[in-house]
Design a protein that fits this description.
Layout: H1 5-30, H2 33-59, H3 73-103, H4 110-138, H5 141-170, H6 174-202, H7 209-220, E1 228-237, E2 240-249, H8 255-272, E3 276-284, H9 298-310
Parallel strand pairs: 2-3
Antiparallel strand pairs: 1-2
Helix pairs in contact: 1-2, 1-4, 2-3, 2-5, 2-6, 3-5, 3-6, 4-5, 5-6, 7-8
């Protein structure tokens, strides 16, 4: 059940719901602002998990008349929204931390908060690893963003845990607010990283250089059959990669030969990259560069024969 996009999205929703209840109860019982801040953080993570759940379902829909290029951008939109929620969490945590510093209230029964934070760390490590594994296997931006949230929760929960331990040992409640502010600063960094990646998908940024290099290599491996290529354009929409290029074939190549070569190139590229859609525009070559062309064709043979006779 927890090996598919939808399955792990459900797991994230369930784990976040459980942790929200535990953290909120512990925060109210102990009077710890850092634990309450963690509850708010988990609440926003739950909202992010719900968004991820629906976005992967939408992104998985096949292309239709209204969306001929598919629904992959739903995942980038999801990542962008989730990053926004994390920024909101950071703002709330900082606000309540400053309020608590001003009020200077004492904490009660910090041991309860310590136990809840330990449970939170263990649960989030397990769930985030499962999310990240499926995200990488399916190349899902939404699940990767959700996993990043939970990894951030691991660090923030550890920070709150340390703060509560220090408060318990020293009796100084100020360390609770300091831990909460540290939580906020950590999640701002995570939100910024997710925002950059989500915006790249929304703005149709090209594929990474190493992936474009794989595409070029796949074409150049057929240098004796293909004259060349140009106008290579790439982009990534969710987990889907779109590739568009102009392929130059020998002028006397038949339609069948050109079609066979396009099919062969598509298979080669798809063997190197996942979730690929390829659009190839075939063009005939000129007849003035035969001496420099590495492709083998009858025009090349004729030109080379003339050159040998002239010599």
């Amino acid at each position: 059940m927890f090996h598919t996009k939808v399955g792990v999205a459900k797991l994230s929703i369930l784990s976040n719901t459980l942790l929200i209840a535990l953290k909120l109860g512990a925060g109210v019982f102990t009077g710890s602002i850092s634990v309450v801040a963690e509850a708010i953080h988990s609440l926003l993570d739950l909202a992010a998990a719900v968004i991820a759940f629906f976005s992967v379902r939408v992104a998985g829909h096949p292309a239709d008349r209204e969306h001929p290029f598919g629904h992959g951008k739903a995942e980038s939109v999801s990542g962008f929204v989730e990053a926004g929620l994390i920024f909101v969490a950071a703002g709330l945590i900082m606000y309540w931390s400053v309020v608590r510093l001003i009020e200077g209230k004492e904490l009660r029964e910090t041991s309860v908060g310590i136990v809840v934070m330990l449970v939170s760390v263990v649960v989030n490590i397990v769930v985030s690893r499962r999310l990240l594994k499926v995200a990488r296997a399916t190349d899902s931006m939404a699940l990767e963003a959700d996993a990043a949230h939970l990894y951030t929760d691991v660090y923030t929960s550890l920070g709150v845990l340390v703060g509560l331990v220090v408060v318990r040992l020293t009796g100084l409640a100020i360390f609770d607010s300091i831990a909460a502010i540290a939580v906020a600063l950590l999640i701002v960094k995570a939100a910024w990283d997710i925002t950059r990646k989500a915006l790249a998908g929304l703005m149709d940024a090209k594929l990474p250089a190493e992936e474009e290099a794989l595409i070029r290599t796949a074409i150049e491996e057929h240098g004796r059959e293909v004259v060349g290529f140009h106008e290579l354009r790439t982009r990534k929409v969710g987990s889907q990669r779109d590739i568009d290029l102009h392929l130059v074939m020998a002028r006397n190549a038949s339609l069948e030969e050109a079609h066979r070569m396009c099919d062969h190139l598509e298979q080669d590229i798809c063997s190197k990259l996942r979730y690929v859609t390829i659009n190839i525009h075939v063009e005939p070559c000129g007849t003035t560069e035969c001496a420099e062309c590495a492709a083998v064709c009858s025009l090349y043979d004729k030109q080379l024969g003339r050159h040998n006779k002239a010599a």
